[in-house]
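Exercise 7. Predict the structure of Rab GDP dissociation inhibitor from Patiria miniata.
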Amino acid sequence: MDEEYDAIILGTGLKECVISGLLSVAGKKVLHMDRNSYYGGDSASITPLSEMFKRYGRGDELSEEKNYGKDNSWNVDLIPKLIMANGELVRMLVLSGVTRYLEFKTIESSYVFYNGKISKLPATDAEALKTELVSFFAKKRFGNLVKNIMHSTEDGAIAEKGYVKGMTTEDMIKLFDISNVKDVIGHAIALHLDDDYLQQPCEETVKRLKLYFDSVAKYGKSPYLYPLYGLGELPQGFARLSAIYGGTYMLNKPIEEVVMEDGKVVGVKSQGETARTKLVVGDPSYFPDLVKQTGEVVRAICILDHPVCTKKGSPVGVSTQIIFPCSQVAGRKSDIYVCCVSFAHNVASKGHYVAIASCKVETDDPIKELDIALEVLKPIKAQFNSVDKIYEPINDGTENNVFITTSYDATTHFESTCANIHDVYKRVTGQPMDFSKVKVDLEVEN
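Solution. The predicted structure, encoded as tokens:
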């Protein structure tokens, strides 16, 4: 391993693998290492199920009496994320050609906890006319908002009379006289984490709403897609891209030291050998002295043998997302999320489901913060709880050439993840991400 590389990547999470793939495509000599024996890092899918029980120190609980089906039928995500059908990650997957290695299935529905019950978010015009989320008299006004959103400009401007650039989102919602459903608009559709957006310029919310409605229009059921066999397939796809262009991958490789000289990185030491490099990119776990904690996320991974149901007992299907806006849950400042996938996505044995409840930690009893979401999932066959710290780098890496990604946040989509990928790649190369060479090469290959 005593060689010199243009870049060394530490960790095989999605962010690191996308950056590794594009650096390789750009002709850089890339070495990619991970202390784990599997791809994905914090965004991995754990297989088989017995490995999941061992990971949480509960290997003795997996018994034939509980009948979880075939052990190797399981691919359990460690974080709950869904892919916006018209979002940035889909663009990355298509332009990079990584879609060749993946198959996707739509998420059947999207729900919101509102006025004490779980209601379906409308996905079609017909559903919008029947939804219980909006009163009969407000349906036309809600439709006017949607019409404005769909015809908004790239910078988030709308044509409604009274609109002023930079006006707050709260004032924009008042223009349409639908303030009583602002939680649905801001949290379940625009996917804001808390209520801070109400006092911020409305253009960002308009762009988020447009992304949602454009994504729904793609497939008609919900705005979300999910890869068969779990989210762990995503970093593996980009790892294959890197390998095609000469990238070297080493799993199960302990990192002993990131070697610095005169304040700049010069190499990475592993098992007594040092690989020289001009720069390092990695996830926060490899750089404890160069990151700061900004919060925590609590997650409960639940194994079910039944579909999730509304309070009326109606099944929501084999996959769904449910958002619990903070204002609808007493005492909360940020939202709670449930993502559910199943055997239909090849992540569980026949008749089983994997549901993950998650939220930002706000109290000294994180698991209890998920009670309202876990109540919807009961009875729960097995539950794996975790509280993960959120880190971000203390500097931008341009002085020491150590570029660190941020931890995965509590959002249930990859838009913030992709924004971080773009940001880190531009700091590493000085250029925006460019997929053009991949496209040319793929055309030649085909």
